[in-house]
Design goal:
Layout: E1 7-11, H1 19-28, E2 33-36, H2 44-49, E3 55-57, E4 71-76, E5 79-84, H3 96-104, E6 109-111, E7 119-121, E8 127-130, E9 145-151, E10 157-163
Parallel strand pairs: 1-2, 2-3, 5-6, 6-8
Antiparallel strand pairs: 1-9, 4-5, 7-8, 9-10
């Protein structure tokens, strides 16, 4: 099943406002997987049930009653990926601690949220990805953002951040 994965939607920090998420699922179909990096604010079931593909969800610092794990490690193609919201790794001060943790777990990619600022950082042998926030963006220009991960025929992962008007 993993070999057939070519297109993955990565989102975070929807904070209970899922209108843009639901529109993206429809607009980007077909998707092979969705990854949500926390802070659904009680709307886990909406996130999990909306797309007709596997969904991986981790809980964030505002997901008080979520049954989703705080962290998860998944394999997509030849990549081992650590999923976390990031708030336990001082992510607001940079992603070095988080990248070190991912490396210690044998991961080559780490995905996180929390800062509401999109990032694709491929330094130090680890790729760190933050899709930003669909609901409360905090980067310059403050446009809602998400990330698409595509896998090429060689299984290499490619990431691109997209901004909504």
């Amino acid at each position: 099943m993993q070999e057939s994965i070519k297109k993955v939607l990565i989102v975070s920090d929807t904070h209970g406002s899922n209108a843009l998420y639901l529109k993206l699922i429809e607009k980007l179909a077909p998707l092979d997987m969705v990854i949500h990096l926390g802070d659904t604010d009680g709307t886990d079931q909406t996130i999990l049930m909306a797309p007709p593909c596997p969904v991986h969800l981790v809980s964030g610092n505002n997901d008080y009653f979520s049954e989703s794990p705080a962290e998860k490690i998944i394999t997509v193609g030849k990549h081992k990926i650590m999923l976390t919201h990031g708030h336990h790794y001082y992510i607001s001060m940079g992603n070095d601690v988080l990248k070190g943790e991912a490396r210690s777990r044998g991961c080559d990619i780490v995905m996180y949220g929390h800062t509401h600022r999109p990032v694709i950082d491929t330094s130090g042998g680890i790729t760190a990805v933050n899709p930003g926030s669909l609901t409360y963006p905090r980067q310059e220009g403050r446009k809602p953002s998400y990330c698409l991960m595509t896998l090429d025929d060689d299984g290499e992962a490619h990431f691109e951040i997209f901004y909504l008007p």
